[in-house]
Design brief:
Elements (H helix, E strand, L loop, with lengths): L1 H20 L3 E9 L7 H11 L9 E5 L3 E5 L4 E5 L14 E5 L3 E9 L1
Parallel strand pairs: 1-2
Antiparallel strand pairs: 1-6, 3-4, 3-5
Helix pairs in contact: 1-2
Bound molecules: zinc ion (ZN).
Length: 114
């Protein structure tokens, strides 16, 4: 499952930060998974929870935000927000829209203790 390798990548990133910035535990981790990044939030959380025991993320609260994606609508000539690929423009109903954001998975911030 794709989410397991993503979860491993996130854990690696957090552990690298822990070494670099000398903290031992993360109390809260906030992630952002864009509406178009193709990640199943429940599966990602499940994968993270199975990986964290014994790591600096053990016992932390993990929040995953799912911001709406943005797209450029050619008919409106403006940026609109969409929730999934293949969706019509919410303003004019045109399918001539190009996703421009919301395709990434990233760490937003974390609260840490020494
Ligand atoms: Zn439009």
């Amino acid at each position: 499952m794709h989410e397991v390798s993503l979860a491993g990548g996130i854990l690696q990133l957090v552990e690298d930060a822990a070494q670099r910035e000398h903290f031992s535990r993360v109390t809260r981790l906030r992630l952002e998974a864009g509406a178009l990044c193709g990640v199943e939030i429940g599966a990602l959380l499940f994968a993270l929870e199975s990986l964290v025991p014994g790591t600096c993320l053990d016992g932390s609260i993990i929040d995953i935000d799912e911001p709406a994606a943005s797209a450029w609508c050619m008919r409106c000539s403006s940026t609109v927000h969409i929730r999934s690929r293949g969706q019509a423009c919410p303003a004019c109903g045109s399918y001539q829209i190009q996703p421009t954001g919301g395709t990434e998975l990233r760490v937003v911030d974390m609260n840490v203790v020494d």
